[in-house]
């Protein structure tokens, strides 16, 4: 049970999650950080400045960084265009912190709600073998951590290109870089864009579940281009997974404002392993025996129920 993530919420929300075997994902723009999504393409271009990366790399990788930076500056307008997402992403927040007082106060109905433990490995089984439907990633709070992620992504890109061509054909390498620089770097930017928050939120230790409809469409279009024999079956399997997760439908719910939402179905991974533990807030009036009966009636008979160790009058 070491690979657990925690979702703090109200008792009513717990009831809906268990009863519907699903999670409600509101649009990302309603998150608590007013600067959410503030990581702009211009900052990403600045992050490609090799002088900001003190880690040692070989000379070829160093030159690769500089080439990408030059190409990106020369194709800035096209890069910014590629970085614009055509659809609004949907998300839900989890934390690595169990039974945490600030999370109870902000998201656990001021100790009257619950802290639900989800098994991260079970959640990741929602993704099909061919690509991602949803993303579960740690939020990046610090500039140096963001640049570390970007550096690792670019080094991986360099290694992948080297694997795909004969290293002696340097002209081919350069041509590939020139041809694919903008989409490759836009892909790296978009992969990190929605997982950045200001450093003053660092204590939340957030894991974000995100569904990006545009990313799903892009993966589907890519599959249509690259699959050969038996390709239709693969595309159909990818579509069926999308439908089984319920992500093709949009609902509208009123929180503090009315917002569109996606309801992520958990039915295909629903088991006692998915939710091994539920912590009840110290101000909750919920009868533990009644809750245990409710969980058992919904295939969670072995889920452990505990009370918060944090006691508040």
Q: pLDDT under 50 segments (min length 5)? A: none
Order of helices and strands: EHEHHHEHEHEHHEHHEEEHE
Structural class: alpha+beta
**Number of β-strand runs:** 10
Sheet-strand content, in percent, reads 15-25%
Largest sheet, strands/sense/barrel: 4 strands, mixed
Radius of gyration: 22 Å
Largest beta sheet: strand ordering: 1-4-9-10
Q: Shape from CA axes?
A: globular
Determine the fraction of residues in helical runs and give it as a percent range.
Answer: 40-55%
User: What gap, in angstroms, lies between the N and C termini?
Assistant: 31 Å
Discrete helix count: 11
Mean pLDDT: 86
Written overview of the protein:
The protein is of the alpha+beta class. Helices cover 43% and strands 17% of the residues. It contains 11 helices and 10 strands. The chain has helices spanning 11-20, 41-47, 59-74, 76-82, 101-107, 120-124, 143-164, 170-193, 213-226, 231-244, 288-297, and strands spanning 4-9, 22-26, 90-95, 114-119, 135-138, 206-211, 251-254, 258-265, 277-280, 304-307. The chain has a 4-stranded mixed beta sheet with strand order 1-4-9-10. Strands 2-8-7 form a 3-stranded antiparallel beta sheet, covered by helices on one side. Helix 4 crosses helix 8 (170-193), helix 7 (143-164) packs antiparallel against helix 8 and helix 9 (213-226) packs antiparallel against helix 10 (231-244). The chain starts with a strand and ends in a 6-residue tail after the last strand. The relative contact order is 0.20. The mean pLDDT is 86.
């Amino acid at each position: 049970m070491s690979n657990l993530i925690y979702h703090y919420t109200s008792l009513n929300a717990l009831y809906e999650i268990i009863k519907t075997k699903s999670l409600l994902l509101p649009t990302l723009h309603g998150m608590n950080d007013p600067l959410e999504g503030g990581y702009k393409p211009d900052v990403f271009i600045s992050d490609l400045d090799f002088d900001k990366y003190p880690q040692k790399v070989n000379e070829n990788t160093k030159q690769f960084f500089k080439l990408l930076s030059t190409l990106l500056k020369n194709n800035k307008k096209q890069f910014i265009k590629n970085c614009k997402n055509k659809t609004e992403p949907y998300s839900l927040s989890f934390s690595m912190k169990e039974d945490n007082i600030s999370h109870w106060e902000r998201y656990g109905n001021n100790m009257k709600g619950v802290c639900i433990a989800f098994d991260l490995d079970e959640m990741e089984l929602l993704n099909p073998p061919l690509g991602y439907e949803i993303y579960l990633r740690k939020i990046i709070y610090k500039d140096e951590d963001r640049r570390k992620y970007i550096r690792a992504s670019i080094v991986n890109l360099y290694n992948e290109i080297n694997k795909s061509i004969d290293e002696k054909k340097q002209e081919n390498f350069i041509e590939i870089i020139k041809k694919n620089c903008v989409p490759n770097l836009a892909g790296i930017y978009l992969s990190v864009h929605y997982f950045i928050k200001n450093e003053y939120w660092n204590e939340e230790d957030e894991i974000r579940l995100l569904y990006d409809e545009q990313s799903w469409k892009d993966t589907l279009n890519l599959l249509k281009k690259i699959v050969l024999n038996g390709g239709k079956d693969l595309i159909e399997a990818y579509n069926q997974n999308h439908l089984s997760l319920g992500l093709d439908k949009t609902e509208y719910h009123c929180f503090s404002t009315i917002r569109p939402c996606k309801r992520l179905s958990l039915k295909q991974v629903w088991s006692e392993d998915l939710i091994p533990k539920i912590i009840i807030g110290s101000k909750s009036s919920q009868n533990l025996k009644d809750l245990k009966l409710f969980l058992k009636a919904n295939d969670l008979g072995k889920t452990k129920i505990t009370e918060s160790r944090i006691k508040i009058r």
